[in-house]
Amino acid sequence: MRLAWRLNKLVAGMLLVLLAGTGSAAELDLSLPASTYRPDTKMMEESTAEKVEAGKTAEKFEPDPISGSKLHQYLGVGTMVMAGMTFITHKHPVPGSNAPRDMSGAHARYAKATVAMAAATVATGLLNHWDDFSLEDGWSDPDNLHVLLALSGAALMAYAVNKSMHSSTPTSHAGMAELGAVGMGLAIKLTW
C-alpha cells in the first residue's frame, strides 16, 4: 500500500514538473505579418534564389551522440532515474521496533549513487557550458536558472544523504532530498 502511494506521489510530482515548463516552451514569433511588409520583388527573387542554391549544398546538422554536452544531458536524466529509485526503495521503520537502521540496503545505495551522479552532472555541466552562465543576463535567463536550480538541487540531495548516513537513528531527510530532486528536475525541464 505504501509503495503504491509513494509511486503515485512520484508520478504526480513528475507530471507537475512537466506542466511547470510547458508555459515557457512556446517560442514567440515576432516577425511582421506578410501583408504589412512588402520588400522589393527583385530583391525577394534574388534572395529566394540564393537560399535555394545554399540549401542544395548545405547538409542537415546532426549533433554528435557522444559529446560533453550529451554526457551532461545523459547524466542529468540518469540522476533523476536514480532519485526515483531512491524514493521507491525507502522502507518505513516499524513503529515500536528498536531494530537498527539498515544503512547498507538498496535505498542507501541508490541515494549514494544519486549524489555521485548529481556531482558528475554538475561537473560536466560546468566543463561544457561554462560560457552559457552570465550574471549580466539576470536570474530570469533560462541558462542561469538551470545552473541555480541544478546546483541547489544537487546540494540539497547531498546534504540529505550525508545527514542520513551519519545518524544511527532515523532522521528527517526525505523532504530535503525530494526538494533537491524537484530542483534538478526543473533545471532539466528548463533546457528541454
* Unreliable runs: 23-28
Give the strand content: under 5%
The secondary structure category is: mainly alpha
Query: For the terminal residues, how far apart are their CA atoms?
Result: 34 Å
Say how many strands there are. 0
Q: How do the helices and strands follow one another from N- to C-terminus?
A: HHHHHH
Major sheet details: none
Query: What integer is the average pLDDT?
Result: 78
In DSSP terms (H or I, runs of 4 or more residues), the helix count works out at 6
The gross shape turns out to be elongated
Helix content: 55-70%
> Measured on Cα atoms, how large is the radius of gyration?
24 Å
From the structure above, extract its key features.
single chain, 192 residues, mainly alpha
Q: If you had to describe this structure to a student in words, what would you say it looks like?
A:
The protein is an all-alpha fold and 192 residues long. The protein has a domain at 67-93 and 101-191. It is 65% helix and 0% strand. It contains six helices and no strands. The chain has helices at 2-22, 41-57, 68-88, 106-128, 142-165, 174-191. α3 packs antiparallel against α6 (174-191). Mean pLDDT is 78; it is low at 23-28.
